[in-house]
Structures are given as structure tokens and as C-alpha cells.
């Protein structure tokens, strides 16, 4: 497996991160265990989750994904030090304001550690910006957790270039730990949230990038091409946003490259992300063994320069 250095965290990760939002949602506990076993057996080593997953499901309160990861870790299929665990803090939960204040971070990290049955989190991310809390307060909270050994590195998700630069300036001025990883939304369809100033800043400052929505909620797999296709789908409320001229143009390009390379459209979409110099590893999910095998193939799929250029143009 081609391991990649994750910015300045000291961590090395495989080129695909398993998206744990499906655990306890579209993948039950037994299926989640099987998927995690297979993922690590194939040479991958990183799981992404959040304390709020999967609070959007009726009857859930958040933390369901972390609980399943904790039970899986306890089974011992993989030694704890061989798994890189990423989780997040600060996303509002069922109307409950959480944020990035020091009191909530101190409380939330204990809950995440307890759910995942572990003594430490490899990478702890600020899930989204909190304009009501100064960067210094948040970074001080993370610094304390690092000193206590409860987290090993810190990063942020959904921060734009200006906001990230602000945090870097505060870290440099105060000597507090900076965000060494960014988790942006980035895929063949949604490119403006990362490409340009944010990607340039990450390259300049040696910041690791683990992008989410690699398959645009499953749209880039090619299985949703009409409104009829999304009827009853768990992610129908998201996929519908991509069913337009731009989306269909991207699917046509994916179909072409897939046919030429003998790969599936989803594998091509993920390989396109892996090939981007600013991206360390995209996050992608699987809910069955067939999808898991597809992730494995995507990690080793090398796209030609012509194929990448075609895909670039389709989603420009």
C-alpha cells in the first residue's frame, strides 16, 4: 500500500480513508465489523467519524458511529496502534448548540474516548467554524488535550482559506498547536470549496488534506441518473442536487474513462481525487463487500493525463 504523509502530524495514511458516517446508519453493527476487517486486511489504516454521526437518523442521538468503532477496536482484529482514528467535535446536534468552546471540547472528547473505548484519538478535528468562539480559546483547548495525551494531532473541517489563515496566524503568535489537517468538501462536482486559495494554502503550509463527499453522496457512482433512480434512496435529499446538466456531463466523462480503463465510475472518481497533488486521501464509504472491493481497486487505479484532463473539463 502506498502510504502518504499526513501533513506535519507525524501520521502516515493509506490513500483512502473509510467514511464512518455509515456505521449504525446504512451499515448495521455486523456489516460494519465485516467492512472494517476487510478494509484493514486490504492494507488501509484510517477511519473518519464524528461525535454527531448519525444524529440525522430518527431515534438516533449522535455517537452511534463511534460506539461501533469502539466495539470493533475491542474485538482486536487490528491492534489499536495500527489504526488511525479521526473524529470531530463542534457540529450542532439535533438543535443542540455545541460549538468550539473549551468547556464543550473538554466534555465532548471524554464522550468520544468512552464511546470508542480508547485512550487517545489520533486526529481531532474542529467540525465546522464557530464564529462565537475566539480561535485562541479553541486552540488552547486542543493544546491541553494534546498535553494530556488524549489527542495526538488537530485539524479542522469546512474552514475556507481566509479562516484557516486566521487560525494559522493565531497559532504562530501564541505558540499554540496549529491545524495540521483540513477536511474540505471536494469531488468532481463540487470543486470551488477547495480548489484555488484553500488548496494553495494547504500546499504552501504543508497541511494534510482528507476530503469528504468523494462520490457526492453516491451520485458519482453512476447509479443515480434520473429522479426515478433516487426514489427511496437513503441519500435522495442530497443526490437530487447533482441531477442537472453539469452532473450528467460529469457522468458521461466518468463513463468514458471507466470504459477505457476497465474500472467503475466510482473508482475513477476516487482515483481522480487521489491523483490531485494537494489531496492526501479522500474519504469514501462502503456498505457492502462489493463496494469495499471497489475502494481497493480505486486506490491502485492510475489515471492517464488525458483521462484526468477530460474529467477536469467535465466538472469545471
Automatic annotation (TrEMBL):
Q: Which GO terms describe its molecular function?
A: oxidoreductase activity
Provide the leader sequence positions: none
Q: Tell me which domain of life the UniProt entry assigns to the organism this sequence originates from.
A: Bacteria
Which CDD domains does UniProt cross-reference here? AKR_AKR9C1
The UniProt keyword set, sorted, is:
Oxidoreductase
Q: Which residues cross the membrane?
A: none
GO CC annotation: what is one?
Answer: cytosol
Q: Which InterPro entries match?
A: AKR_Detox_Biosynth (IPR050523), NAD(P)_OxRdtase_dom_sf (IPR036812), NADP_OxRdtase_dom (IPR023210)
Protein's UniProt keywords contain Oxidoreductase: yes
Domain (NADP-dependent oxidoreductase) ranges = 15-314
Q: Which SUPFAM superfamilies match?
A: NAD(P)-linked oxidoreductase (SSF51430)
PANTHER family tied to this protein = NADH-SPECIFIC METHYLGLYOXAL REDUCTASE-RELATED, OXIDOREDUCTASE-RELATED
**Full protein name:** Aldo/keto reductase
Q: What organism, scientifically named, is this protein from?
A: Ferirhizobium litorale
**Species lineage, top-down?**
Bacteria, Pseudomonadati, Pseudomonadota, Alphaproteobacteria, Hyphomicrobiales
